[in-house]
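Inputs:
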Amino acid sequence: MMSTSLRRLLDALPAHQHAAAQQRFARRQAVLGDRLQRLYGHLPGHAAWFDGLMAEVGQLMAARPATLQALDATREDRPDWFCSPDMLGYSAYADRFGGNLRGAAARIPHLRELGVTYLHLLPFLRPRAGESDGGFAVASFDEVDPRLGSMADLEDLTARLREAGISLCADMILNHVADDHPWAQGAAAGDPGLRDFFHVLDRDAAAAYERTLGQVFPEAAPGNFTHVPAMGGWVWSTFYPFQWDLNYANPAVFAAVATAMLRLANRGIEVFRLDSTAFLWKRLGTDCMNQPEAHLLLQALRALVDIAAPGVLLKAEAIVPTRELPGYFGSADAPECHLAYHSTLMTAGWAALAEQDASLVRAVAAATPPLPPGASWLTYVRCHDDIGWKHLLAEAGSLERLAGVAHFYNDGAGYADGVGFQGGLATNGTAAALSGLEAATSDQAIELALRRLLLVHGLALCFGGLPVLYMGDELAMPNDHAYRDDPARAHDSRWIQRAPFDEARAAQRHDLASPTGRAHAGLRRLIRLRRQLPDLAAGVPCTALDAADPALLALARGEHVLALFNFSARTLVVDLQALGGAGTLALEPWDQAWLDRRSGRHLGDTMEEAR
Ligand code: GLC
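Outputs:
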């Protein structure tokens, strides 16, 4: 007999959608029902609530445009479509990239030239009035920021990107909303249902939680609670005081957020970057991160996506220690996100540069389990946020060691031009600035800085995952100090890496006499090479081989690829025989070589010959 929830789902759908919906529901109903039961089953009216949610989901499926339904069907047939080495991501703020959404669309040729197939535009929904943490304080999930365009512009952008073979990724900021979001305003105006969308505590209860909580912005926004007189208490606000954490112990919050996400999926968004996923569930006596219930929530959300919009990907933004990262993929029976940031790999790459020793990358690689099928790491070099060194504590063994790395980047101790953040154990700065290009004056210094810039990108491109470039890094853009003169941004040094797209540099990108042209050409060469190597697909095993010299990172990918990275200022003579190949190879300071594992031949050369 058909369950009431399935009946409610089907009732909302036209007959031609029934068969597929029924099949998808059958595949995911066990995990969906179980996770929601575990989270909310103890509450009165749970079964009716679940049936109501399925009716809403059915309506959203009925409203899903035919082109997106077709995309769903194609991707269901090829669930690992995003794991291939053809995939390349790019991340940018819409305004900084192209002025607005239309301007971003006008940059499609720039993206295509690089080989981009996935564009993450940082928050573009209507943000809070005034300061908004770069749009991460959302005031409406159903409106585009009017400064950036309209919903029609968004739909047009997604269609144009799709035509160009590029999937649009958008942030789904599900941990919190802005204090001027209607839910927050309603709560502050006394609506008891909406008040329950948030965590409102008295002073003592807040203090009890605070004892074991960390702090995200200890300098700019200390503490995790904000006293809001209209709410008669302390509102949980992990990030800035104007970002109010949502209360996922309330099923109405889950339903409201899940349906908001599916509405956006119907606008053509193909990937959701689930912001701050680690923080979704609170438990007294813990740091309220990575709690088991946060995973149950993500499993339920994934099941809904698999039913309603299976062409859509979920990506976990959980910036946490290596051991916590794989959990965000879930399990074969209960998958969570398709993608997860490999944040400690990124951090370890920069740490290895500072230490001239690749041991932290080797340790992270060793602690990284094989990917489950249909899942991929998101690998990267820089993003709009800081590099947080503390997440490497397990691999580094001591905070002192990480403080040494932070000192290197933040205090001008070497070539790098970074700025300290979060009390010093984090760094801001563009990839070029951190690689030493900003400070380089001689040809020799420029050459070495470019090698370092390409070294960290090479790691992201060949480790195994979907590599995402951060806007401007392909042009070796320097730090942007202008934020210091803007009172709305001066307190948050992450703005140093959020400069507007540099037209002058873009015009220089083919000029091989300029550092910009060399960075762009070097990066494109690695990207092209990657595309030709099936062993660089996400799921192919990646092993960090034992190397005789601590500065050498030797990554074996599958049967054919051996990628060597020299993290030091010394020339290394590498014994390839010891790595299973033949002969020796001299690796210049901060240089890399992608080789055929057996013959030791440069894969790059093979590629040049093939062209
Ligand atoms: C994520 C974003 C970051 C933002 C925070 C709060 O970590 O990447 O920029 O400040 O969430 O939304």
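Remarks. The domain at 81-159+319-534 is CATH 3.20.20.80 (TIM Barrel). Residues 606-611 have pLDDT under 50 and may be disordered.
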